[in-house]
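Box 3.1. Reading complex inputs
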Amino acid sequence: MNRVVVAVATLLGGLTLAAPRAHAFPTGDQFDMDPLEEDGAGGVAFTGAPRWAGHTCAVCHTGAPGRIGLILQADPVDLFDGGYAPGSVYRLRVVLTNQWAARSAAALGDDCGGDPGSYQRCDSNGYAIEIDDRSGRPVGQLAPMGNGGCNGGAAPGADTRVLADGSAATHSGIHHGQTAWDLCWTAPAAGTGPVTAFLAAVDGNGGDGTVDNPGDQTGDDVFAGAVPLLERGAPPPPGDQGGCSAGGSAAPWAPLALVGLLGLRRRRRRAGRRAVALAVVAIVAASATGCATVKPYEKEYLSKRKMTFAPDASEDELDLHMQEAREGSSGGYGSAGGGCGCN
Amino acid sequence: MRGPVLAAAAALAAALVASPALAAAQTAFSSKVQIYVDDDHTSVISPTVSAAVDVDPDTNVSAGYVADVVTSASIDIVTQASPTTIHDTRHQASLGLSRILGDWTGRFGYVYSAENDYGSHVLAGGVERRMFDKDTTFSLGYALALNTVGRADDHNFARDLTVNDVSATWTQIVTPRLATQLTYQLGIASGYQASPYRYVPVRLSVDADPMYWVPETDPDSRTRHALVIGANWFIPSDSAVQADYRYYRDTWGIVSHTIGTRLFINLTPKLELRLRNRFYTQNGASFYQASYPTTGLYMTIDRELSPLWSDTLGGKLMIALSKRFEGELKVDGFYYKYADFPSLRSRLGANLGVGVSMTY
């Protein structure tokens, strides 16, 4: 197998989410199970793809230090430099690098666990991948590896399984100490255009090291990244950045410009119009830097409730109703409901 | 019995467009109770329930109910012709529908509100367009509020108040940790906007005895402009800072400034604290006077049209009780200072809230 390293992950996780508690998925089968009844993922694998608002495994595996990485390998290798050939079958390997959580248990493989008296922590790792077109729709066909490589059905004990709806692949069963997973991908039909492989992985620490808690999501490490893949022979895609130059981050002064608005209030009356003008200028300036597109898999923080502009609409409505009945102003913040409420 | 100051006109259009969802709609239920008390002898208990359901992956419907149970003997009440303590209840029901069509989202809403002397119907609609990898969202909204102002124990008194609201919002993701929003809202109100209960004393000075009283009269039309700029900034330790500024002016001569800041602190994976402060200041309406030595075309003793400033400071704890349930506890304290309203110099009060929500 001619392998080429194409995507050494450098994105840092470092997420400490306040998301509701959830259990880890030591078995890939759990991704298709019911979330409430079976503690599953409901057919969803958070790969960081746009259709999941950029969510990754970090939604539940909180506090990840971001020390691990991922490598995506392919055979034939020209998948990465020449693009995918429509309808062709590619053998892919996802490699978890820099594993550290429960590393001391890696050599045990599936011989970990055991009775309470002799219990040994397991090195439980996992991954997910999906490949989407520009509209965010999964394309091509993912499949586990067979005995004959990517020809034929899945081999017994294959370490990858495909979700029931075919949209993504994850690790299969429980294979402790595993840091590489093989799978097959049949490229989509001609005309699909550029696609993106979204990958996410968890370096599990095996719970708290006791038989009572063999697999929570605390203390694990997480990585997510994306690899763009062109269609071979297709013309370069038209830009979709709305005239902006993609790449790079916004200027660091952008948030400062906005925060700086807080000081404007102290300028009385005559400063009112100037404040509005400056506010508009500031937001336009800050937003203009947004021309450096924030990729879907970079929107982990933005998708949190605390980052929305109306995180609690019902509370806002009650507060606005009270404020608008006690002040001469209204508007701009949303609905205050109906009626008077003027006492 | 309640003094129908203008405030009633619902600006649902802005609500429909002001929060382009970075997260998808979801099935959820919440129930809350908020208690308002102030040192002007007014208390309001507001129970609320709301529910939202994903009918299909692209369609979400919602419904809600709010009640305001009011007990008041405020200065507004005791300066009326028949001073007394009033008890009143406002009921409000709302319905909402949103549907995603590719990069577009359409929204529709209806709110009905009824109380002893005030009825209100609000119809609203809006569209939202996501662009550039969903980094940019533009929204437009419109709301029509049809209000009927009554007077308790007077079935012959009924006045109309119609409010049209148009709003436009631009939401921009600037960096993976920063989002900004700019909202403009235009409100045009026409109809009866005074209080049928308030009578304005005509007197030579603030301290003089009234020579006579005349009904409060406000202009029948009012055009409002509100411009809000906001930013949400994700900071380390899974925390966030939100800040906004509103500039407001209207054709009654009121200019106001509002600054809001909120800090979300992730105390533990299950416990989040929100601290907030809101500062507000306004001048008086052009026709407002602390005392009227003679009659004029427009006359009011509405303290909300007088020069004032206020500050609200509060905290809220949000507790993840389980994977699906969340509880919250809120305490806000507020202070209003009236610079030119002789009957009341200040108002101090609190908003207390408790609630639970369930999300699927």
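In summary: Confidence is low (pLDDT under 50) at residues 1-25 of chain B.
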